[in-house]
Specification:
- This protein is an all-alpha fold and about 60 residues long.
- It has one domain (about 1-50).
- It is about 80% helix and about 0% strand.
């Protein structure tokens, strides 16, 4: 899960760097890349928390 979030964040970072290098880049693409990075990080935290809660809910003797 962490690798997936890292991959999405990295792709968004690359897109942001491309936009900085290309002054013609649109604000909408810049905002979309920032949003994708934020959503990936939030989703990763939510999924990780949910999996930890599931692990605690399962009895240890199983």
């Amino acid at each position: 899960m962490r690798a997936f979030v890292t991959e999405i964040s990295h792709a968004a970072d690359v897109d942001l760097l491309d936009l900085m290098a290309d002054e013609v880049g649109s604000f909408a693409r810049h905002k979309a890349a920032q949003d994708a990075r934020s959503w990936a990080a939030t989703a990763g935290i939510t999924l990780e928390t949910g999996l930890m809660q599931l692990a605690r809910a399962i009895p240890a003797d199983r």
